[in-house]
Amino acid sequence: MARPKVVLAMMMHETNTFSPVPTTIDSFRPLAGAAAIAELEGTNTQFGGFLDVARQIGAEIEVPIAAAAHPSGHVQKAAYEEMCDAIVGGIRTGCDAAFLALHGAMVAEHVDDGEGELLRRIRAVAPRVPIAVGLDFHAHITPAMVDSATVVTGYRTYPHIDMGETGQRAARTLVRVLNREVEPVMVWDFRPMLTSTLEHTPSRQPMKDIMDMAIAAEASGTVLNASLFGGFPQADIPHLACSSVIVADRRTDQGKAKALLDRLLDMAWERREAFLYRGAPLATQIAHARTLGEGPILLVDHGDNTASGGTQDVMSVVEEAMRQGLEDVVAGPICDPAAVARIIAAGTAAGVTLDLGGKIDMPQLNLEGKPLAVSGKVTRVTDGEFVVTGPMATGTRVRMGRTAVLDTGTMQIVVSEMRAEPFDLGVFTHCGIDPRRKRYVLIKSRQHFRAGFEPIARHIVMCDGDGVTSSDLRLFDYRKRRRPLYPFERDFPLGGTAR
Ligand SMILES: [Zn+2]
After folding, report:
1. What are 206-239's pLDDT values in tens digits?
2. Distance 251 CA to ligand 1 centre (A)
3. Which residues surround the ion ligand 1 when the cut-off is CB under 5 Å?
4. What's 215's domain CATH number?
5. What pLDDT, on the 0 to 100 scale, is given for residue 496?
6. DSSP secondary structure letter of residue 396
7. How far is the CA of 435 from the centre of ligand 1 (A)?
8. Is position 156 within any domain?
9. Is residue 344 domain-shared with residue 431, that is, in the same domain?
10. Residue 488 domain-assigned?
11. Which residues are CB-neighbours of 297 under 8 A, at least 6 positions away?
């Protein structure tokens, strides 16, 4: 193909259907054309990976939209329609291929399967255009997604440090399709089980053996692409599950893809109990942290994690750390725009007493927001922006809005106007705090903190704080999920669980 025209688009959101945080079109900060390319070229993101391959083949590149939002509640109908219209419109005008950076766990107010519906609409206007789709490891796979895409790949890491590579893997297979080297066929399946996001990271067991097998099959050329998806538990949708997609070459595959698919998913199913998180009382966890030796000791507040849809303003872990008298702590960021305004109005070096965090109720968990009264000195005010230097989303710009540091004497608390998960040291270093020199580092995260913070930590203590990303799945009222679904139901035969 002389100079193929490629439509490259991004529409990414992991929807926590239990989250009270609204998801508007502004949450996505949509870009298009040259502005999108300028923002994302050379970054370790799916879009960046797709762009690399498009450049390598000398493609004419069109970007109708590049939009990504932090995880939060249902995507508003108007936002979903606007993004879909942009992508479908971009492809409808004619192209040789489409590269789509998606998530796989997007739920809109009116659509449970955000990605499947988008792909179905694209297929309706472009029945033959080859489509490469990249997905997050937390995706849920549906027939609409697999039926409408040509190639699907997913992240193989969590924290997601292979986002760029995932885009490249999908795009490279699609380039082979354009060159008529391969004729892809996809097989997929699922097992009716939930895996805790605290336990399913592919770098550790029980997932490691399974993901390693998928990686080996792809590396050896047994199949074109092999991906496994842990799923995202905080989503009340019918297709909630652990699933896998294998891309094979129709001309050479002799049942290899299906055999691999079954092996991967059977292994996951056999290990289902090991994928469950077993918690402990928060007070016991903080008390344990007090007994540990040298810092930095990470206190991981995983019940209120922005990258899973948390409000980022739940104060229970901070409160318990203060109650037990922890000293030399840096904590945050806490998202509280009203508090930031108060702090900035007070000015640097001023003493402030205010009700911090706890501004947002969580009705789906029957939890009311509970602010914490704190007093401290304002030591720093920033614009909340920095460029990521760690291994996850390297090169992207984080925007936390105006940000301030409140020092209580025992705890430096970073407070920001907007939400951002701490996966890079920049959340603290950009405001003059070196977390390597602190005894305790209290962060709101589940796994992504491992990208930037695990290398500096001497100890990691998981803290079962409150919030809409709690690991205690009994707290969530699922109405749409499939039944039976492990671990809610435990003894059931596998056969007959319909797609
Ligand atoms: Zn994810």
Report:
1. 999 999 999 999 999 999 999 999 999 999 999 9
2. 33
3. 136, 138
4. 3.40.50.2300
5. 54
6. P
7. 25
8. yes
9. yes
10. no
11. 289, 439, 440, 441, 457, 458, 459, 460, 461
